[in-house]
Design a protein that fits this description.
single chain; 253 residues; mainly beta; five-stranded antiparallel beta sheet; 20 strands; 7% helix; globular
Length: 253
């Protein structure tokens, strides 16, 4: 919670969210939700809790003042994570197995937009910039447009980020964190620094964290024309050519 007193925990195999009072150090209540809840987000005013139910393929909205579920709406195949935009009404949800993102009204549950993301697959965590303009997902890029004939240069799966400019309907750009001879395997969690100069990405498959120059990434996104999006999503040499965007990769154990 915004005051730091309560911790909300999605209990994936119990179909509930537990509320932990941090001063007491114990669970004080549980809220029933859909099957296999994963990602959570709390509204800035502290009234709503949004829960992504990956197996139910829904998003639940909980009124924390009354502890009631106010809606549960289907969003797509295997949704996992959710983030709130700066206007406090809209939320964005990534569908891991549908290659698309859904933008919803967080108070009514109305789907405002469903945005296809090309070859972006297995969407993981999402973060939004403070101005609400960009949503950034950790993702893999699947190259299943042809049979597998080569492993090198990310011809099976690549690893990176998918950036959506939410002021442009249908917009997305995928930028890879891979290098030519080493993959940034399984990007998962994403966190913004408070000054929005750095984006931290956990690379679960290689036990490292990538530290990305966010202004350089957004500059790349703004300069990518629609006809260049597919080529960029296949470019495993971009980090060497665009040095300011190159992530500092730190081992974490």
């Amino acid at each position: 919670s915004s005051d730091g007193r309560m911790l909300y925990v999605s209990c994936q195999h119990a179909s509930r969210v537990d509320v932990v009072d941090l001063e007491q150090g114990k669970v004080t209540r549980s809220i029933a939700v859909g099957f296999e809840p994963m990602g959570l987000a709390i509204s800035r005013d502290g009234q709503y809790l949004w829960v992504v139910n990956s197996l139910s393929e829904t998003v639940s909205a909980i009124d924390l003042l009354s502890n009631r579920q106010i809606f549960e709406v289907p969003v797509g195949r295997c949704p996992r994570y959710v983030a709130q935009l700066s206007d406090s009404r809209r939320i964005v949800v990534g569908n891991a197995q549908a290659r698309d993102v859904v933008i919803l009204d967080g108070q009514s549950g109305e789907i405002l937009e469903r945005r296809p993301l090309g070859r972006a697959v297995q969407l993981r965590q999402v973060v939004c910039t403070h101005d609400g303009r960009y949503a950034i997902f950790a993702t893999m890029v699947g190259h299943d447009e042809q049979i597998t004939i080569q492993m090198e240069r990310g011809w099976v799966n690549s690893n990176g980020l998918c950036v959506l400019d939410l002021r442009q309907e249908g917009h997305f750009v995928a930028a890879l964190l891979d290098r030519l001879l080493s993959g940034a395997t399984n990007p998962w969690a994403v966190v913004l620094s408070p000054d929005e100069q750095r984006l931290y990405v956990s690379l679960a498959g290689i036990h490292q964290v990538a530290i990305v120059d966010l202004p350089a990434l957004l500059k790349l996104v703004s300069e990518t024309a629609p006809e260049q999006v597919q080529r960029l999503s296949q470019d495993v040499e971009i980090l060497e050519r665009l040095l300011p965007f190159s992530p500092v990769v730190e081992p974490v154990g």
